[in-house]
Write a structure and sequence with these properties.
alpha/beta; Rossmann fold; 44% helix; 17% strand
Length: 266
């Protein structure tokens, strides 16, 4: 009984209306977490499971640390019903901070790069990328409320931390967005289905044709990786897993790479 009392949500006591349901709900979550841990240890091993647990706990403190609101999930059916392509959107979830920072440190990206978060949501990735020293950091998001929340988060973050890079949030449908031509590092945390991903890649192809450049693309939770691998634009460089988070890294060779390759063949 003591265990049940300690697990009840704040403000609910034994004897209150519905306290039994609250207790069952909390105990159910504990049971589910325990079951997940057992299965994860079997599949991944104890060390990896411990890293995932630590990463999840640390990640839950991100908003507390900075005073932002990036962690609360948003289902696609909560988005504006009038949005074009809403049917192709997926649930908003924040990228985990520690794996993303580890990824940026791992990648050998050129100085002066422009970073783009495609489907930037509430802007957590933008805040983290702005500390890495990119020339500029940009998020493209089609939901107006998510863009507004991202801009609020950026202002709150700036009041506590001085970002190294300017941050811009653009409200746009990614299938219609016009690229300037200097964007060369793209990040996607599974923001949409294969239909929109294919259209995004096609628009990027057009941009690269007009403004030839090397391009890096990082795909987290890569459910539709086949679209990228069959696009003819990218070559897959590596699959990386940091703290239980999977990233696929792709690269499109620019003119300088082509010239180097030709010299090597002579």
């Amino acid at each position: 009984m003591t265990e049940v009392i300690s697990l009840l949500p704040a403000g609910i006591e034994i004897g209150d209306p519905g306290w039994q349901f609250a207790a069952v709900g909390v105990l159910g979550k504990v049971s589910a977490a325990f079951s997940w841990a057992v299965e994860s240890i079997r599949a991944r091993g104890f060390g990896t499971t411990l890293k995932i647990v630590f990463n999840t706990i640390e990640d839950s403190l991100f908003d507390w640390r900075y005073g932002t609101e990036t962690g609360r999930a948003v289902d696609s059916d909560q988005l504006d019903s009038a949005l074009a392509n809403r049917e192709h959107a997926v649930r908003y979830k924040a990228t985990k901070a520690r794996p993303f920072v580890a990824l940026l440190r791992h990648l050998d990206l050129p100085q002066g790069s422009t970073f783009v978060d495609v489907g930037s949501g509430k802007g957590r990735v933008l805040l983290l990328a702005a500390q890495h020293g990119f020339k500029r950091v940009m998020g493209v998001e089609f939901s107006a409320p998510l863009c507004e929340q991202a801009r609020r988060n950026i202002e709150i973050f700036r009041a506590r931390v001085q970002p190294l890079s300017p941050i811009e949030v653009v409200q746009a449908d990614i299938t219609r967005h016009e690229w300037r031509g200097d964007e060369n590092v793209f990040f996607l945390y599974n923001p949409f289905d294969a239909v929109i991903l294919a259209q995004f890649v096609e628009r990027l192809k057009q941009s690269v044709a007009v403004h030839p450049r090397a391009v890096w693309l990082v795909y987290s939770a890569p459910l539709h990786a086949a679209v990228l691998e069959g696009s003819g634009l990218f070559a897959k460089r590596e699959s990386i897993n940091f703290w239980g988070t999977e990233f696929h890294v792709y690269r499109h060779a620019g003119p300088a790479d082509s010239s180097t390759a030709k010299e090597a063949l002579r």
